[in-house]
Structure prediction request, 272 residues.
Amino acid sequence: MTIYFEKNHQRAFGTFPLKDETLLAAIACAAETGYRAFDTAQMYENEATTGEGLAASGIAREDLCITTKVNIENFTEAAFLSSVEQSLKDLRTDYVDVLLLHWPPADGDIAPSLKLLQQAHDRGLARNIGVSNYTVAMLREAVKIVEAPLVSNQVEFHPLLNQDKLLAGANETGVPLSAYCSVARGEVFKNPLFAEIGAAYGKGAGQVVLRWILQKGVSVNVMSTNPVNIKANYEIMDFTLSHVDMARIDALTSAGFRIVDKDLVPWAPEWD
Prediction:
């Protein structure tokens, strides 16, 4: 297995929407805390600063797991590979560990961008490839199109949204899920259940949320600029939620609280 699957890389530090000095300070704190997986994207317009921060960390390249995502605007023969090369230049690396397609194309024809993604892998620009915001039907089609394994489908995943269909699709196709909006942009903290459960484990509400996601078999991407929270978000491997507590949290997914919908992203697919 690749570095992507190692235990230490089930927790990635997300960089959206951070920029400039704020991002540099956050990366420095995350690196000192122990994070070795970092997630960015062309769309975030912060790859160069992310590259600067990772270079300043002094962490050996082979110990890092860097993920970036190709912007939907670059899903053409003319732009795709050159955009990835620019991402590598900005990130100060010869390759990324994981290269994702940020969104399915607006017209729903996923084959052309997937084939370009395969080319990026074949040329050594990316050690691993994957997708983001794909539906189950898209995953079924995608695994037939690309030769390299798809190592991630990065999607909105948190305890206030039922993603059982996507989880089943991940198991069926062998494409693991990775979570963004892991704490529902703070919405989870309005529910006292997480703090109540956390008290029994000596953990905070956010740590309970992230642990629930991991125990669902989903890796986490989480962002913070607060050093206390950066460290707390990392310290989630030393406890295990009971089956009872997992079920109590599972019940909250019926809330159907989706952040990334067509109002926010007009080209979003019809979600499962």
Observations:
- The chain has ten helices and eight strands.
- Residues 1-5 have pLDDT under 50 and may be disordered.
- The beta strands are 11-14, 37-39, 65-70, 96-101, 126-132, 150-156, 177-180, 219-222.
